UniProtKB/TrEMBL annotation:
Organism: Adineta steineri
Any one Gene Ontology cellular component term annotated for this protein: cell-cell junction
Protein name from the UniProt record: Cadherin domain-containing protein
Keyword Repeat recorded: yes
Pfam families, alphabetized: Cadherin
Parts of the chain that traverse the membrane: none
Length: 144
């Protein structure tokens, strides 16, 4: 402040329940944020001295952390019988010609970016494997 001796007081015009602004204009919080609930906050910061008031908007962006488990969309346990009864012979795995396509597995993760990447791993199973794009295959269709 160019006016010598003026003391600047800072306050917030909104979100006082989540943020605190100190005497130096630093913004603090003790709240634990969840990007999946709200990814951005716009704060109105107000500065006053003896004779004038100024304000500005500060945007706070919440970063994503890997805090959500993958959710299986398809298949769920009620749909397994339906999948096994359908004829899926139209899909072929050129690397395993004796295999039989069963279904695509659809998974969602509410995180974003690298935190939302999902990799399916199968145990050392003698009958099934996970193929390209999360597809489930029977290793040897002759056992059907």
């Amino acid at each position: 402040d160019k006016d010598y001796g003026d003391i600047i007081n800072y306050s917030l015009g909104n979100h006082e329940d989540l943020f605190i602004i100190d005497q130096n204009g630093k913004i603090w919080t003790q709240y634990i944020f969840d990007r999946e609930l709200q990814d951005e906050y716009k704060l109105t910061v107000i500065a006053t001295d003896n004779s004038t008031i100024g304000s500005t908007t500060v945007t706070i962006k919440i970063q994503d952390i890997n805090d959500n488990p993958p959710i299986f969309i398809w298949p769920n346990s009620n749909e397994i019988r339906h999948i096994l009864s359908d004829d899926h012979s139209q899909r072929i795995d050129i690397n395993n010609p004796s295999s039989q396509f069963i279904t695509d597995i659809i998974i969602r993760d509410n995180d974003i970016g690298n935190n939302s990447l999902i990799q399916l791993l199968s145990s050392n199973n003698e009958h099934f494997y996970i193929g390209f794009n999360n597809s489930l295959w029977l290793k040897n269709s002759s056992i059907l």
